[in-house]
Amino acid sequence: MKVTLLEPIETIRGTVEEGTYYFRMYKGMQIVQRCPDRSGHIKTEAEKANQQRFVRQYAGKRN
Prior knowledge:
The protein is α+β, with helices and mostly antiparallel strands. It is built from one helix and three strands, in the order βββα. The chain has one helix spanning 45-58, and strands at residues 14-16, 21-26, 29-34. Strand 2 (21-26) and strand 3 (29-34) form a beta hairpin.
């Protein structure tokens, strides 16, 4: 859904209503979208493998 903001506000990024909706810019337009509900999501084998590969590669590199 396209959003028209009031004059002093140019853009908004982030979530509102406890993570129900989020704002973003897309091709110069301000967009508001509903956040996906992943509470019942079950990871596929490919997702699990990708997560493990990410952990091996980047674990402990945070400063």
